[in-house]
Amino acid sequence: MKDYIQIGIEKGLISFNEDNSRIKYCYQGKERNYNNPEEKVQALAFLQLVIDYNYPERQIKQFEPVTMGSEVKEADIVVFEDEVCVKPLILVECKKQDVSEAEFQQAINQAYSYAFALPNEVKYVWITSGIKNDYFEVDKSQNTRNQLPDIPQYGIREVANYKYVYGAEYLPDIPGKPKFFGLAVIEQVDLTRRFKLAHEALWAGGQLNPSEAFDELDKLIFCKIWDERKPRKVGEPYDFQIITVSKSEVPDETKRRIKENENLHNRIKALYEEGRKKDAEVFRDDIRLAPEKIRTVVSYLESVNLSETDLDSKGRAFETFMGSFFRGNFGQYFTPREIVKFIVDVLPITNESKVLDTSCGSGGFLLYALNKVREQATEYYPNYKNDTRQYGKWYTYWHDFAEKNLFGIEINEQISRAAKMNMIIHDDGHTNVITSDGLVSDADIKARTGNNGFEYETFDFIITNPPFGSTIRQTEQAYLKTYMLGKKEEDWLAVRSRTGDDTRDGQQSEVLFIEQDYHFLKENGILAIVLPDGILTNSSMQFVRTQIEDWFRIVAVVSMPQTAFTANGAGVKSSVLFLQKWSKEHTEKLVAKKKSIEDNLLSKTNYLATRNLWDREIKQKQKEKVASMRNRQLTSATEIKKTDEFKSWNAEMQAEYASKIDELKSKLVEEYQQRKQSDLPDYSIFMAIAEEIGYDATGKKTKNNELEVIGEELKKFIINLISK
Question: In this structure, are strands 471-473 and 552-559 parallel, antiparallel, or unpaired?
Fold first, then answer.
């Protein structure tokens, strides 16, 4: 977007004081408070009138008094036809950028009241918030509101029925003919505000709930992007804009607006259907907005060039908007970008890597992987913007990766669509983002989606932050019995083997995702996964840790602070594990070696014989105790066992043996760990604790981010590992 302020300063139209708190309009010699949000919009409107519409400063008056009954009010800007400023042509009403849709509609009424109050007839009114613009042709005699797509330029009375065309910068200026405009590249904060205001305009009236409004806005953003990607000739108008119908064609104001809305609805629907042909998974249902609501959203986005807006800016804008909307209910779907960046940066992902996120949420990991490969493309082809040959190679390098090698699974359909939109906004990579339970088999995923890319043992990297704390129950999900970690663990120190169904009643979802990710990885593939520290420390999770060391080489463990996910509604202490999948042969050897150590210790210590002996001793002592008490009490053995005396004695005796058993088990476990250390292959593990990670518990950015330093060292460690 043009830097109107800088151009205005250079042309001597405006100036500022030292701290930029006050703006001076040089021709009028008037100073105003620039900290006032409305003043910023007014300054922009004034500069646009001069720079874009070519109106002379001398024919523009700001802060023009307007007498309304007994009151004197102030019109923001009045543009005059004549140099003596007698014949008003355009009245401009300015509102702050974040004005609501309802407030904007009130501003239209206010502008009309000013226009009717001014002496002589105002021909046009322009209502602007800098974000949204409405233009009207004024007819005092009929009190009608004939909406226009723009105001006329200086010296021209004709206004075309559309404003935005492709390649406007290449069109010649034709005297007496209206000027067309191209789409503007805008900053992140501006784009975020537009998304937010458009969303609020959809649900604030009560016709849609916020969730439905988000879905519908998603669809229209999709149409906007698709419209920009359509091939067009220079000067051809965009479809995603308000195109008016002339009064001569439809004289009645109400009927004319209905016709305009119908035409817009049909153009948007055509864009939507064209886009759905490429990927029906993006949106499965039709646009459900009324034509007037579509018009409202279009008015916020029609002037914006989403395709050429900086990738990071538009990505951050969409994520910020998503975050503000979803964080309350779906905070778990948003991994902080500092953690995402750290994980992706340390992994040697290239355009040939096949990458998966089995719980992709809003697509943060996938986006960073895509951007990493896009940056690699730029390193290889730095002149792609100016060299057509380089551009083709640059585009193919990252786009083939996005289309063929980047995969994501998200169980929540709404979030899955949002992830797709996030990818589309980042110039694609959405094709292989699917809506599915990430824990079903690859065959089930392929059958449900028709996407054969989701195949076990084919992925080079899995980067994921699975949902914590939810329990997958056997009664709810039949697939639990297919998971090794869904079964009750075998205790090598148990005296009796387990019989019958050994499936657990339930298992934590994050535990099952470890196993699912193992299946998806190819040999030597790397899994980077965020896990709660309980899996690493709780004694009840030892079986999980045992399975991890059987399946994976533990590459690194990076501990996150307690507050890492607090801003997203999760207070669980977590770490990032980097795991490299062993070959099947290596895993089999490990398991066999562990079994050999266990069997050797059991044999050497006569563990089973000792336990059986103690069991016999317990039964014998119980028998003797019952016999002695029967001699005294002349009652049955069954009745004696119910007495407090027997129960107390039995509990004490059992406790003594339990203590002996625990002591023996502890000794064997200790010897087992020692034997493991000495007999199993040893390797280095990268360990780090991050206390400062670039943001605090509220999500506010901080200066210190230890992940940057840790990441550089871990990157070297991983590169050295895979190069061996």
Answer: unpaired
Residue 401 pLDDT > 80:
yes
**Is the entire prediction scored with pTM above 0.85?**
no
How far apart are the C-alpha atoms of 214 and 198, rounded to whole Å?
10
* Parallel/antiparallel/unpaired status of strands 88-94 and 71-80: antiparallel
* Residue 249 to residue 466: CA distance in whole angstroms: 58
Chain-centroid distance of CA 690 in Å reads 24
The two structure tokens encoding residue 90: 């355009």
123 SS3 class: coil
Of 327 and 611, which is predicted with more confidence? 611
Q: Which residue has the tokens 């039709």?
A: 286
Alpha-carbon dihedral 25, 26, 30, 36, rounded to 10 degrees: 20
* Alpha carbon distance 624, 279 (integer Å): 79
Taking alpha carbons only, the member of 69, 72, 77 closest to residue 32 is 77
Helix (H) or strand (E) holding 326: helix 311-330
> In sequence order, which ranges of 11-62 are alpha helices (DSSP H)?
37-51
Report yes or no: 38 and 92 within 8 Å, Cβ to Cβ: no
Which pLDDT tens digit goes with each residue over 484-495? 888 877 777 777
DSSP string over 106-126? HHHHHHHHHHHHSSS---EEE
Largest Cα–Cα separation, the chain: 129
- Please tell me the distance from the alpha carbon of residue 52 to that of residue 198, in angstroms, as a whole number: 26
327 — pLDDT class (breaks 50, 70, 90): low
Whole-angstrom distance, CA of residue 461 vs CA of residue 675: 33
Task: Read off the tokens for 519.
Answer: 């299946």
What's the CA gap between 365 and 339, in Å, rounded? Answer: 10
- DSSP structure string for 255-300: HHHHHHHHHHHHHHHHHHHHHHHH-TTS--S-----HHHHHHHHHH
**412: helix, coil or strand?**
coil
103, 224, 311 from 423: Cα distances, Å: 33, 14, 10
Alpha helices in 154-209 (DSSP H): 188-203
Residue type, 144: T
E-only strand ranges, 95-179: 124-128, 133-139, 144-148
> What would the mean pLDDT of 229-243 be, rounded to a whole number?
94
State the Cα–Cα distance between residues 341 and 349, nearest whole angstrom. Answer: 13
pLDDT at 507: 84
Asked if residue 341 lies in contact with residue 368, where contact means CB atoms within 8 angstroms, the answer is: yes
pLDDT tens figures, 10-26: 999 999 999 999 999 99
pLDDT bin (cut points 50, 70, 90) of residue 500 is low
Tokens of 702: 């901080």
For the chain, the average pLDDT equals: 89
Q: Is the pLDDT of residue 566 over 90?
A: no
- Region of 69 please: left (phi>0), alpha (psi -120 to 50) or beta: left
